[in-house]
């Protein structure tokens, strides 16, 4: 349904918003609305998704077993705390994969709805603004991937140094996972190493996929709020037909916000709870290490999670601001010159628009920049507690 007129055709296409999440969805085995579920390719992706999910669950259990055995053997406190962030990261990936699968039909339904209302033309200012926001998302993805590669490579620097100086290769694995077999044996070592790289990659892709999809949905809904605000700003007091379309579009956008909230609310609660723990424990590891080489990987992992949380909070804040702006533009229109039916229609937008459309963590906390500050504050409090607990053991 196209109802927007402008002086130029839009260079910002609908697909521009969702290219990144669909790429990561492909790596996760997610089937989207523009694919036939009955095709062999979609069925193969579905099989891969379930294999990946089951494998991630198995690895999370084995990581917990390794953690439990470390506690049982009275391992060093700092070492035990170093295991928890990686376990948390894996569990978070499982939660997000599960949400993606459970709500995939609803997500596809939202994508179809957004495609149906996407304007054929856009204002030049809106095009430039949201093109920049999409670019920032791409830069975040590049930064995320580069940082994770760095996080995985740095621990092997001493191993490679020893190999090139002495010719002795010490077999190590990227992550601490319990195995019931001797993974140092030939062939088994190579296979186990590849398996860990696979589960690490799958975990990263799962975390990024659902977050990028959420941010992309919020970004496009926010764009629609901007478009609606522009229409209200030039609305004439006798244009009842245009006002009726504005009221209808506003109602559609509010419904989309509610559907997004219903889908992602649970995963956001898990994400922010686990992220608080991960930020706290990773920050503790940065200051607990006895050398800069050991601290650098944890510092990059810490910064990565902080940026990830900030991204979600930023987009949550963006949706709140854009939804509230609609009522401001409606109030600044020439409603006082219109007749009574016209004024009643404006009043509907005003009443609805005064309630910010929010993404929440199951109603416990609103996802916005204030939430980001709260998470950092909570993480720092737990970090201080861990430092106090660790001091007698130094």
TrEMBL record:
It is found in: Cell membrane; Membrane. Keywords: Membrane, Olfaction, Receptor, Sensory transduction, Transducer, Transmembrane, Transmembrane helix. It comes from the Eukaryota. One of its GO terms (cellular component) is plasma membrane. The keyword Transmembrane applies. It is a multi-pass membrane protein. The chain crosses the membrane at residues 47-68, 74-95, 135-154, 268-289, 295-315. Pfam families: 7tm_6. The keyword Transmembrane applies. One of its GO terms (molecular function) is olfactory receptor activity. GO terms for biological process: signal transduction. Belongs to the insect chemoreceptor superfamily. Heteromeric odorant receptor channel (TC 1.A.69) family. This is Odorant receptor.
